[in-house]
Amino acid sequence: MMCRIMKITAAAAALTVLCSCGETVRLMGDSSELAAIESTAGAASGTTTGAPLETDTSASETEPVTEPEPTTVDVYDKDFELPLSSVLDGFQTVLQEPEFPSGCEATSLTETLNYLGFDVDKVTIADEFMPIDYNGYVLMNEAYIGDPRTDGFGCNANVIVQTADMYFASVDSPCYGVDLTGTEYSDLWYQIAAGRPVIVWVTIGMRVSYPEYVWTAGNGQDFIFDWYQHCITLYGYDLDQGIVYAADPLVGNTTYPIETFAKIYEIMGKQAVVIAGDASSAGHHTTTEAEKSVTMHTRKQYLEEEAAKQGLTEQEESVEPEPAEEQNEEN
């Protein structure tokens, strides 16, 4: 962290140098539950979470079409009897290191996807699907800022939704991410009880720390950052013991006091993401509003562009200029 703090001045003076010490930085539900999750997100944050799923019309016209049963699990459905404890069995943490000392967001998404039955690794998620800005031109609501392989900063919940949706598009899955930012911490228990892990933004070790001004980004907006920003996945809670079960990419499977988590969760803006559906959900991918809102490239796209530019440069250098025609002078 000291490395990050000592380099704030340099970062403000030169946006092309992103400096930090990232090494100390940051479900289940079948297709019948998707509509309820969407309504939850809209009520919680007022944001559009995705287009409705396509209906499977492959069945014969003579076969009756069974409509999905409406789910009884809703953050705001107080008729749902919340159990005093709920833990998603078999949830395993994916550790961010050594590949991503500051890549907790992509790693938290990866461990969540793995639990939901998707066979994908953190490097693929971070490199091929996560929007990234190496130079600090935009803010964390548009891209991951910096490089998760070294001393990057991070991204906000909506960027992880974009990342998830672009991955789902690549595998033609009807699933999509839902931004639950603004949801009260106690309402997250309903998501877990419904079988959905919740990706949340906290701080390293649940340390009390507050975001502060770092620099003015290239787009003219203030870059605000908490130097201990971190991202984990909640996969359980126990109200009697007062603990949450967390998959912490820096620690592993662990627990934190609910009281402490609640305080840090609020400081970090009550940012939360869940996934609608799982690997068994039937249907095809429909392009979401989150995908349409992407403004920055992924690491893979940047590398492809650079390779294309390098190829053109080498091609131009390999072309030898034609010798100028000699002009014959008449005697």
What attributes characterize this protein structure?
331 residues, alpha+beta, Cathepsin B, Chain A, seven-stranded antiparallel sheet, two-stranded parallel sheet, 11 strands, 16% strand, globular
Tell me about this structure.
The protein has 331 residues and is of the alpha+beta class. The protein has one domain (26-49, 69-130, 156-305): Cysteine proteinases (Cathepsin B, Chain A, Alpha-Beta Complex), CATH 3.90.70.10. The chain is built from ten helices and eleven strands. The strands form three sheets. Strands 1, 4, 5, 8, 9, 10 and 11 form a seven-stranded antiparallel β-sheet that branches. The longest helix is centred in the C-terminal third of the chain and has 20 residues, at 299-318. The N and C termini lie far apart (81 Å).
First CA to last CA: what distance?
A: 81 Å
Poorly predicted runs of 5 or more residues: 1-76, 327-331
Rounded radius of gyration (Å):
23 Å
CATH superfamily: Cysteine proteinases
| Order of SSEs | HHHEHHEEHEHEEEEEEHEHH
Question: What structural class should be given to the helix and strand makeup?
Answer: alpha+beta
Tally of alpha and pi helices: 10
CATH class: Alpha Beta
Q: Which fold name corresponds to the CATH topology?
A: Cathepsin B, Chain A
Helix content: 25-40%
Total tally of structural domains:
1
CATH architecture annotation? Alpha-Beta Complex
Shape: globular
Whole-number mean pLDDT = 81
Strand content: 15-25%
Major sheet description: 7 strands, antiparallel
Number of strands: 11
